[in-house]
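Reagents: none. Just compute today. RDD family protein.
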Amino acid sequence: MTESAPSYPGERLGLPREGSGSIGRLGRRVGALFVDYGAAYLISGFFGWDALAILAIFAAIQLVFIPTLQGSPGHRIFGLRVVRVDGAWVGLWRPMVRTLLLILVIPAAIWDADQRGLHDKAAGTVLLRA
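Predicted 3D structure written out:
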C-alpha cells in the first residue's frame, strides 16, 4: 500500500490548509527572523558588543518569549506561534533545542513536506499561524 503525498503543508499533522492553526509559511517566517535578528543587532549595537553577542541576544529572545508568549516578538508580529505538535505548551526544554539548532542555521534550512525545519522536528514543535 502506498501513501499519497500530502496536498498541502500540515495535512499529515491534521492542520487546516489556511487560516488560524495552519502552517506558518516562508514569508512570515523570514519576516519574523528579520525582526528578531534586527532587535538583537540593535541591542548589541547599543552596548557596542560584537557579532557573537548578537547571536547570544537572538537566542535569549527565543528562549524567553517562546515559552511565555508562544513565540518570539517577530513571530507574534507576523501572526505566528510555536506549539508542540499536539498543540500543547512547549515547555522549557523544547525552546532550548529549537533555538540551538536554529542558530546553527542548516537544520532550519532543511524542511519536510509539512514545511517543518529540522530544528522544529527535533524539538517536536510546529510554527503555526495565530
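The chain has one domain: 22-129.
Action item: order primers for follow-up constructs.
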